[in-house]
């Protein structure tokens, strides 16, 4: 075993002295290649066995705090089930925190592990569809080829799990055009629906889409609360309009995302393809692909969008880019269906990083706890946030 591996092993087994700490962190700061450091830590991982105990976790926190940037921003990639794995992986993060996605070595190091302390499952595909007559259809991952018929409307689920809302016979009946259905996802749920015109709408957690039983002859109009990704079927004669928190988005055929949660200070419309007109009161802006319109108060500002960050929820990730701890926790709470309670001052730290949405909640909270100089306590489905 190399000298550095001996030092690392003693350090992570909690047998470190002040002199050992200096040697360890001195090695981290040495001007050697990242590949050499990764290889040394990989060799260490193959030879070391660490207990899951308070001492090991204390070592983990000491290392994390030491390698975090001074401005309390941290770049992380967490998929750890073992504190031992977290300790070594976090060192790699310290070496490469300028690399947004971390190191591929992490995926090789962490393959097995023990259950973590707290177990709250991530969200799943679930929603409800309330029809105009008041009846409700509960939707989940179960396979049902045909759910119900309502007048000249057929509602079914396809092989991809999407709900298809289909008009059996052509109709622009004014009575049907003035009656509305509500498609709703709870906290901890998301779901995709294909509307009668062929447009696809994927709802994020704690969101709803209100749409007419049949679109009118002149326009396609829906109301959004929360967040959704739209793929609108092209129809130049019948524009598609989305109303969200006093903002109206008008399109002909395009792909875009709207984030319009009532507990967020801003409404954000991000365009991926086509053209979108965003308006509020008498202010109207037209955005191009790759741009984002931010609506707040009576203003609309257009800027370049971070498309990866906007699409993160759809792709199964949380991506934070210089984001406040409070904002990050709101996103986590919606997806894991938990209540947030603050004890003490709300933290103002900013974080950056990427975490999978499909893991235990503690794997998501742990890096926030260290990076934000805060502590979390789980009580049932409540997260207590403390200094």
Shape descriptor: globular
> How much helix is in the residues?
25-40%
Number of strands: 24
Radius of gyration: 25 Å
In terms of quaternary structure, what is this?
Answer: single chain
Topology:
Blueprint: H1 3-12, H2 18-28, H3 34-47, H4 54-67, H5 83-95, H6 105-109, E1 124-125, E2 127-130, E3 136-139, E4 146-150, E5 153-157, E6 163-167, H7 174-177, E7 180-185, E8 189-194, E9 200-203, E10 207-212, E11 220-231, E12 240-244, E13 247-251, E14 255-260, E15 267-273, E16 276-280, E17 283-287, E18 291-296, E19 299-304, H8 307-311, E20 317-324, H9 325-336, E21 339-342, E22 350-356, H10 361-371, E23 375-379, E24 382-386
Parallel strand pairs: 1-8, 6-8, 11-12, 21-24
Antiparallel strand pairs: 2-3, 2-7, 4-5, 5-6, 7-10, 8-9, 9-11, 10-11, 11-14, 12-13, 13-16, 14-15, 15-18, 16-17, 18-19, 20-22, 23-24
Written overview of the protein:
This protein is α+β, with helices and mostly antiparallel strands and 387 residues long. The protein folds into three domains: 107 residues, no CATH class; 186 residues, Jelly Rolls (Sandwich), CATH 2.60.120; 71 residues, Phage tail protein beta-alpha-beta fold (3-Layer(bab) Sandwich). It has ten helices and 24 strands. The strands form three sheets. It has a 19-stranded mixed beta sheet that branches. Strand 12 and strand 13 form a beta hairpin. The protein is globular and about 65 Å long.
């Amino acid at each position: 075993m190399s000298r550095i591996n001996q030092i690392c092993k003693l350090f992570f087994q909690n047998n470190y002295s002040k002199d050992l700490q200096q040697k360890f962190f001195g090695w981290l700061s040495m001007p050697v290649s990242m590949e050499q450091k990764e290889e040394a830590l990989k060799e260490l991982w193959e030879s070391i066995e660490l207990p899951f105990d308070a001492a090991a976790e204390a070592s983990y926190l000491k290392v994390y705090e030491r390698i975090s940037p001074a401005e309390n921003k941290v770049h992380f990639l967490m998929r750890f089930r073992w504190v031992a794995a977290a300790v070594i992986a976090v060192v790699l993060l310290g070496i490469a925190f300028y690399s947004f996605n971390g190191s591929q070595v992490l995926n090789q190091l962490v393959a097995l592990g023990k259950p973590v302390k707290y177990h709250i499952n991530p969200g799943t595909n679930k929603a409800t569809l309330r029809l105009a007559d008041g009846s409700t259809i509960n939707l989940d991952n179960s396979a049902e080829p045909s759910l119900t018929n309502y007048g000249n409307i057929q509602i079914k689920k396809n092989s991809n799990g999407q709900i298809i809302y289909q008009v059996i016979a052509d109709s622009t009946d004014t009575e049907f055009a003035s009656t509305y259905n509500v498609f709703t996802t709870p906290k901890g749920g998301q779901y995709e629906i294909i509307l009668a015109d062929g447009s696809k709408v994927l709802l994020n957690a704690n969101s709803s889409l209100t749409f007419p039983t049949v679109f009118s002859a002149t326009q396609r109009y829906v109301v959004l609360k929360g967040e959704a990704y739209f793929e609108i079927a092209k129809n130049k004669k019948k524009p598609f309009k989305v109303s969200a928190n006093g903002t109206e988005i008008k399109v002909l055929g395009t792909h875009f995302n709207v984030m319009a949660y009532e507990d967020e200070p801003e409404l954000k419309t991000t365009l991926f393809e086509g053209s979108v007109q965003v308006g509020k009161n008498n202010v109207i802006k037209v955005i191009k692909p790759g741009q984002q319109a931010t609506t707040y108060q009576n203003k609309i500002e257009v800027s370049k969008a971070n498309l990866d960050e906007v699409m993160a929820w759809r792709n199964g990730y949380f991506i934070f880019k210089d984001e406040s701890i409070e904002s990050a926790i709101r996103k986590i709470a919606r997806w894991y269906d938990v209540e947030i309670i603050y004890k003490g001052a709300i933290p103002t730290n900013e974080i950056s990083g990427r975490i999978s949405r499909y893991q235990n909640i503690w794997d998501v909270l742990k890096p926030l706890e260290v990076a934000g100089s805060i502590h979390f306590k789980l009580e049932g489905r409540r997260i207590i946030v403390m200094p």
